[in-house]
Specification:
793 residues; Agglutinin, subunit A; six-stranded mixed beta sheet; 50 strands; 29% strand; ATP binding; lectin; ATP-binding; glycoprotein
C-alpha cells in the first residue's frame, strides 16, 4: 500500500509541475499547472500579482525572473479561490471555469466541431486550432493586453469597426484595464497615439516610410524595428514590432502612461526607448499655434507671427490657451501684399494634417498658397505633401532631427522696405567683421589656455591617464549620436562609446552652460586619477579641444542606480540582498575617500544617480566634479558657493556653507533610506500631511523598527533584522548636528557587524518644493537658500 501511495503522489507532483503540450477537453489546465511553448521561451499558467490574492491566467517569459507577464486572459474578472480550470467547451471555445463551474472568461469563438485544442507558440501567441479542418479559430495576438511582442500588431479596420490596441494595467498589482490606451490612427499617414480616457495624451507624429516624424532619434542612421502598412482603399492598417535577432523584446504601455521598449540581454531587461520624456511630449502642451521647445528645461513660445492669446495666463505659466495671429492674412497669391511662408526647422509636424498628392515641394507650396484656409505645409521624405487647414496644435521643436514646416504669414511679418534691408545688410556686415575678428582673437586665447592645461596635466605624470584626441572620441560615440546617449547629468550628457580596440567607454561631455568650468574639470581629473578602489568609477582619460571638455570613464553596463531603483519593473532585479550589497559597497567607497586613500576627499554630491552599477550590480561612486581634498589634519571647511543636490545636503552645509566628512555621511544616510524604500527623496510624500521620506522613516522606526519602510515589491527577499538595522543607521547618518553623526568608519562597522547601535535623535525634516532633482549653485546669501530651496519643520 505504501508503494502504491508513493507512486500516486509522485505522479500527481509531476502532473502539477510539468508543461503541457496542449489544452483539450480531456486535459484542462488547472491551478499549479503550466503550458510551455515548444522551445521553452514562454509559459502559460495561473499567476497572482504581488500584494494581491486574485488569480489570473497569463503568459510570461518562462526562464526569466522576476516574472514578466505579457498577456492576461481574465484581466477584468479574477479567480478569487484556489480552484479553476482552463479548458475547451462543448461548442469549441476556450473557457475559464471557477470552482462552481461558472464561465469566468471565454474566447467566444465557436468551432465547426467540438474537436479542437489550444497550444502556446514560441512567439508567445496562444492559439486555438480546429482538429478537423486545421484552421486557426482564435489567437491571443488578436486580443492584446498591455504588451506587444514581435509578430503581434496594432490594427484598425474601418469597414468592420475592428480595432486592436494596447491597454495599460490599472496598477502594478491589478491587470484590469487602466487609463491609457495605445492605438493606431486611420489618418493618412497613420500615427501611434496614447489616449488617456477619451483625451489624446501623446502622439508619435505621422509615419514616414521607416520612422515616426515626431521621434527625433529616428534619423537616417536609425535601424527601425517597426513596420507600418496601410491599405487606404480597404480602410485597414497594421503596426508591428519586428525581431531582428534572437534577443527577447517587448513593448509595453504602463499604468502611468509611459510607452517603453525593452530587450533582454541575457542578464536583465534593457530599456531602449521611453516616451513621454518631457512636457513637450504631452499633447498640445503649448496650445494652438504654440511651439514647445524641447530644451532643458522645456519651454513654450509662440510661432513667429503669433502672440499669446491670453498674456496674463502665459505670465502665470499656463500656456494651454496658445497663440493668435499678430497680422491677419490677405489671402492674395501675388503682389506686394501676397501671403508668405516662414520655414521652421527641426519640428514635429502638428496634428490635424491632410495628405495631398502633389508631386514635389513646389507643387505642395503652390497648393497651400492657392487655398486661403491653408495655414501651413510640409513636404516630408517618405510621405510627400502634408497640408494644415486648421489651428497648428502639438508643434514641437527639437535641437536636432524633426522636419521643416512652412507656416503661412502676412507679408508684413517677413518683408521690410528696400531701404530697411540695405541698412540692415550694412549693419550686419559690419557686425560680422567685428565678431569674426573678436572670435579669432578669443580662439587663439583659448587655444593657448588649452595647451597650458594639457601641459599642467602632463607634468603631473598621472599613471594610466590617457589624453584622447577629439576625432577618437567622435568616432567612438558616432559623433555623439543620440542613440549612444546614456543619460543627462547635472553638468552635461553622458555617451556610450567604443574605441577601435572594441573597448567600451562612457564619455561625459561637459556643457558650456552646466556651471562646471575649468576649475571643476581640472579638479575631477586631479582627484579621480589618483583614486583607485573597486567601489569608485575608474577615469581612463580626458580630452580638451577648444571649448570642448570631455572625461572618459570605464563603461558600466547597468548604468546608474536610479535606473533600477525608481523603475516599477527594473527595481525587481535588485532584491534586498543586492540592495544590502550596494549599501555596503557605497560605504566602503566613502571609507576609502575619507580615510584610506592617499588623499582625504569629500565628495559633496553623493546621490542615487551618481552611483553606477557594473555587470554584477556592484556599486561604484562617480562624478567628482564637486569634490574637495583636505590637507593634513584639516577636518572641515566652508564655501561661499553652496553646490550640490537639494535633499542630500546636510543642514550645516545648506545653511552656512560648512562641509566636512559628516556632510557626505548625511548624504549617505539619505541615499541609504532611498535604497531601502525605493522612493525618491525629492518626490516622496505620504498622507494628508505630505510627510517627507525622512519623516516617514523616523516614524516607521519608532513604530516597528523601520521594517515596513522597505520597498513592498521585494519584501519576500528581505532579512527584517538587516532592514531594521540599516534604517537605524540611516537615521543616525541624518542627525541634525554633525557631531551626532557617526564617521564613515563607524558606519561601515555598524553595517558589517552586529554591535549595539546608539539611539538616533529626531532629525530635521527638509521639504523639497520641486519634484525634479536639481543641482544647485547658490551665492553666499543664507536667507536666499532657505527661502527658495529648503524649509525646516
Amino acid at each position: 500500500m505504501g508503494i502504491v501511495l508513493f507512486s500516486y503522489f509522485l505522479w500527481l507532483s509531476i502532473l502539477l509541475n510539468c508543461g503541457y503540450a496542449a489544452i483539450t477537453r480531456a486535459s484542462p489546465l488547472s491551478l499549479g499547472q503550466t503550458l510551455s511553448s515548444p522551445g521553452g521561451t514562454y509559459e502559460l499558467g495561473f499567476f497572482t500579482p504581488e500584494n494581491s490574492q486574485n488569480h489570473y491566467v497569463g503568459i510570461w517569459f518562462k526562464k526569466i525572473t522576476p516574472r514578466v507577464v505579457v498577456w492576461v486572459a481574465n484581466r477584468e474578472k479574477p479567480i478569487t479561490n484556489y480552484v479553476a480550470n482552463l479548458t475547451i467547451s462543448g461548442n469549441g471555445s476556450l473557457i475559464l471555469l471557477d470552482s462552481r463551474e461558472n464561465v469566468v472568461w471565454s474566447t467566444r469563438k465557436l468551432s465547426t466541431s467540438n474537436k479542437c485544442h489550444a497550444k502556446l507558440l514560441d512567439t508567445g501567441n496562444l492559439v486555438m486550432i480546429d482538429d478537423v479542418s486545421g484552421s486557426l479559430l482564435w489567437e491571443s495576438f488578436e486580443n492584446l493586453g498591455d504588451t506587444m511582442l514581435p509578430l503581434s500588431s496594432l490594427m484598425y479596420n474601418l469597414a468592420t469597426g475592428e480595432k486592436r490596441v494596447l491597454t495599460s494595467w490599472k496598477s502594478h498589482s491589478d491587470p484590469s484595464s487602466g487609463d491609457f490606451v495605445l492605438q493606431m490612427t486611420p489618418q493618412v499617414p497613420a500615427e501611434i497615439v496614447t489616449m488617456k480616457g477619451t483625451k489624446l495624451y501623446k502622439r508619435s507624429g505621422p509615419w514616414a516610410k521607416t520612422r515616426f516624424t515626431g521621434v527625433p532619434q529616428m534619423d537616417d542612421t536609425y535601424a527601425s524595428p517597426f513596420s507600418l502598412s496601410q491599405d487606404v482603399g480597404n480602410g485597414t492598417g497594421y503596426f508591428s514590432y519586428l525581431q531582428r535577432n534572437s534577443e527577447l523584446i517587448r513593448v509595453i504601455i504602463t499604468s502611468e502612461g509611459y510607452l517603453k521598449t525593452f530587450r533582454y540581454n541575457g542578464t536583465g531587461w534593457v530599456l531602449d526607448f521611453v516616451t513621454p520624456k518631457n512636457s513637450c511630449d504631452l499633447y498640445g502642451a503649448c496650445g494652438p499655434f504654440g511651439l514647445c521647445v524641447a530644451s532643458n528645461p522645456t519651454k513654450c513660445k509662440c510661432i513667429k507671427g503669433f502672440v499669446p492669446k491670453h498674456k496674463e495666463d502665459w505670465k502665470r505659466g499656463n500656456m494651454t490657451s496658445g497663440c493668435v495671429r499678430r497680422t491677419e492674412l490677405s489671402c492674395q497669391t501675388q503682389g506686394k501684399s501676397a501671403d508668405v511662408f516662414y520655414r521652421l526647422a527641426n519640428v514635429k509636424p502638428p496634428d490635424l494634417y491632410k495628405y495631398a498628392s502633389f508631386l514635389d515641394a513646389d507643387q505642395c507650396h503652390q497648393g497651400c498658397l492657392s487655398n486661403c484656409s491653408c495655414t501651413a505645409f510640409a513636404y516630408i521624405t517618405g510621405i510627400g505633401c502634408l497640408l494644415w487647414n486648421q489651428e497648428l496644435i502639438d508643434t514641437v521643436r527639437y535641437s536636432t532631427g524633426g522636419e521643416f514646416l512652412s507656416i503661412r504669414l502676412a507679408s508684413s511679418e517677413l518683408v521690410g522696405s528696400r531701404r530697411t534691408k540695405i541698412i540692415a545688410g550694412t549693419i550686419s556686415l559690419s557686425v560680422f567683421v567685428i565678431l569674426a575678428f573678436a572670435s579669432y582673437k578669443y580662439w587663439r586665447y583659448r587655444a593657448k589656455q588649452n595647451d597650458s592645461w594639457k601641459n599642467d596635466l602632463d607634468a603631473q605624470e598621472f599613471s594610466g591617464l590617457t589624453f584622447f584626441e577629439m576625432n577618437i572620441i567622435q568616432a567612438a560615440t558616432n559623433n555623439f549620436n543620440f542613440s549612444n546617449k546614456l543619460g543627462q547629468g547635472g553638468f552635461g550628457p553622458v555617451y556610450k562609446g567604443k574605441l577601435s580596440d572594441s573597448k567600451e567607454i562612457a564619455v561625459k561631455r561637459l556643457s558650456s552652460s552646466s556651471g562646471q568650468g575649468t576649475e571643476e574639470f581640472m579638479n575631477e581629473i586631479k582627484l579621480i586619477s589618483k583614486l583607485q578602489h573597486r567601489n569608485l568609477v575608474r577615469l581612463l582619460g580626458c580630452c580638451i579641444d577648444g571649448e570642448e571638455k570631455l572625461l572618459v570613464y570605464e563603461f558600466l553596463v547597468n548604468k546608474s542606480l536610479d535606473t533600477f531603483l525608481f523603475d516599477s519593473t527594473l527595481k525587481l532585479q535588485i532584491d534586498w540582498p543586492k540592495r544590502f550589497n550596494i549599501i555596503q559597497g557605497v560605504a566602503r567607497g566613502l571609507l576609502y575617500l575619507h580615510r584610506d586613500s592617499c588623499l582625504r576627499v569629500i565628495h559633496r554630491d553623493l546621490k542615487v544617480s551618481n552611483i553606477l552599477l557594473d555587470e554584477n550590480m556592484n556599486p561604484k561612486i562617480s562624478d567628482f566634479g564637486l569634490a574637495r581634498m583636505f590637507q593634513g589634519n584639516q577636518h572641515q571647511d566652508n564655501t561661499h558657493k553652496v553646490v550640490g543636490t537639494l535633499g542630500y545636503m546636510s543642514p550645516e552645509y545648506a545653511w552656512t556653507g560648512m562641509f566636512s566628512e559628516k556632510s557626505d555621511v548625511y548624504a549617505f544616510g539619505v541615499l541609504q533610506l532611498e535604497i531601502i524604500s525605493g522612493k525618491k527623496i525629492s518626490s516622496f510624500n505620504c498622507g494628508m500631511e505630505g510627510k517627507t521620506l525622512l519623516e516617514y522613516a523616523w516614524e516607521s522606526w519608532l513604530e516597528n523598527d523601520g521594517v515596513d519602510l522597505l520597498d513592498q515589491d521585494i519584501t519576500s527577499s528581505c532579512s527584517p533584522v538587516e532592514v531594521a538595522r540599516c534604517v537605524q543607521i540611516g537615521l543616525l547618518c541624518i542627525q541634525q548636528q554633525a557631531i551626532d553623526r557617526p564617521n564613515i568608519a563607524q558606519v561601515v562597522s555598524m553595517i558589517t557587524t552586529a554591535s549595539d547601535l546608539p539611539r538616533p535623535k529626531k532629525p530635521v525634516f527638509a521639504l523639497r518644493i520641486q519634484d525634479e532633482e536639481r543641482v544647485v549653485s547658490v551665492s553666499e546669501s543664507v536667507n536666499h537658500i532657505t527661502q527658495t530651496a529648503i524649509y525646516g519643520r
